[in-house]
Design a protein that fits this description.
alpha+beta; Uridine Diphospho-n-acetylenolpyruvylglucosamine Reductase, domain 3; Enolase-like, domain 1; five-stranded mixed β-sheet; globular; DNA polymerase, domain 1; about 450 residues
Length: about 450
């Protein structure tokens, strides 16, 4: 079984048959003989396989090859070799394994200097890990590239304009991952819902940033049926109404991070979105996907829940709305039928006097949460306290909310202990202990709120 796709690669239009289970990374390396994009971690963390998809950096290991149909892909082979000079001069490269990804992300920053109005170089490069160079040299390399390009220029001539020789196309038999799965790519919501109704075992897919993790080692997944939602334009945008911000089912983290209005009214969305991987993940991952993945450690879900998000679930039977804080029934269990998808996420617009997001991990970026907390207070709605990585689901902490609302004297973190033990059920695992999680949550609440909550002293 094969899938025919047409897309633009490094300035050349290509039409070829691909295997349903091929990743973009496999297609580039083994079928198109473009080995510059490297296989590193296979989970979207190291950035060695960074390419541009419609002008944004993404991890090729997490992009199903069929999703590039009708789109524009650029690889390291399209970058002007002169781009490497500044990285050589600043000592940003050594062994070379991570160099293509570093150059791709660094060149993207050079060509889009406006992102530095809201982001530091080090944050933007967080998705490109390197074990032998040290990050100061990499940051200095990007800074030197910016100086050479002239910071403030809207566009920079160079790599994107280069058109290398058209790649040779190896036969389908050379595909690294084949599988016997079936792919559907509907262009309307009605068609997608019909497909899911007729195929109860089909898997809806959008950003794929979780689904394709360690994909080569999961052969059973290669034989499943997938309904790709990414061609349904009606699900993509987020929009504002008089009383709500509505995120579409395909709205990405990067879409919201770049929205100044969202940053002003719902700042926790930007704060959490910037902690969900790096730019390569933020450009692909969706808020709806973060919800439907149902991970207890999800970073986007706590802030959505703290903003009283309401989900619209759609199927051929119609639509229904479910409050996000009532959506999870247990570990990986949701109030959603197999034929339903999340089409929108509605956040009511309110005046908040407290908005706080905290993430405790092993490092400042690219880390799974050990303890996470989102807190809001609106005079019209009261307190919302939501924690992640401390129970089988992302959890709204009702006892802690009642304690804060009571105005009772809280003289230290230990005053939250009873409420915390009522609210959460942490476990010991490879990242932390249950005792650590409960202790840290109390300290996040106390020290984070003592200047803005009555009763805390």
């Amino acid at each position: 079984m094969s899938v025919s796709i047409r897309f633009r690669l490094n300035g050349t239009d290509l039409c070829l048959d691909i295997a349903p289970a091929e990743r973009l990374l496999d297609l580039l390396r083994y079928r198109l003989d473009l080995p510059g994009s490297k296989e590193g971690c296979g989970e979207g963390e190291c950035g060695a396989c960074t390419v541009y998809l419609d002008g944004l950096p993404v991890d090729a290991c997490l992009v199903p090859a069929w999703q590039v149909r009708g789109r524009d892909v650029e690889t390291i082979e399209a970058i002007d070799p002169a781009t490497l000079d500044v990285f050589l001069r600043t000592g940003a490269t050594q062994c070379g394994a991570c160099t293509p990804g570093v150059v791709m992300t660094g060149s993207w920053i050079r060509d889009h200097p406006q992102v530095l109005e809201t982001h530091a170089i080090r944050e933007l490069m967080a998705g490109n890990l390197c074990r032998c160079t040290g990050y100061d040299g990499i940051v200095e390399g990007v800074e030197a590239a910016l100086e050479g390009a002239g910071v403030g220029a809207e566009t920079v001539a160079g790599g994107a304009d280069r058109q290398p020789n058209p790649p040779s196309i190896r036969p389908l038999e050379c595909a690294a991952i084949v599988g016997s799965g079936e792919i559907f790519r509907p262009h309307t919501l009605d068609h997608a819902l019909s497909l899911l109704a007729d195929r109860p075992d089909a898997v809806p897919i959008a950003g794929a940033t979780d689904l394709l993790v360690h994909w080569p080692g999961r052969p059973a997944a290669h034989d499943r049926t997938y309904v790709d939602l990414t061609a349904i334009e009606a699900l993509r945008p987020h929009r504002w109404t008089e009383d709500a911000l509505i995120l579409g089912g395909l709205t990405t983290y990067w879409d919201v991070i770049g929205d100044a209005r969202a940053a002003e009214e719902f700042p926790l969305l930007r704060a959490a979105g910037r902690q969900v991987g790096a730019i390569q993940i933020q450009a692909r991952g969706t808020w709806a996907g973060n919800i439907a993945n149902a991970s207890p450690a999800a970073d986007g879900v706590p802030v959505l829940m703290a903003y009283d998000a309401v989900l619209t679930l759609a199927s051929t039977a119609g639509e229904e709305e479910v409050a996000l804080d009532e959506f999870y029934l247990g570990y990986k269990e949701m109030r959603m039928k197999p034929d339903q998808i999340i089409t929108s996420i509605r956040l009511p617009r309110r005046s908040f006097d407290v908005q706080r997001f905290d993430k405790v991990g092993s490092r400042a970026a690219q880390a799974i949460t050990k303890v996470g907390l989102a807190v809001t207070h609106a005079p019209s709605a009261g307190w919302r306290v939501v924690a992640n990585s401390v129970a089988s689901t992302v959890t709204r902490c009702h006892a802690s909310e009642r304690l804060l609302a009571s105005g009772a004297a809280i003289s230290g973190p230990e005053a939250f202990d009873d409420a915390i033990h009522s609210d959460i059920a942490p476990i010991d695992d490879i990242r932390s202990t249950a005792a650590y999680r409960a202790r840290v949550l109390g300290r996040l609440l106390y020290f984070g709120l003592r200047d803005c909550a009555p009763g805390l002293a």
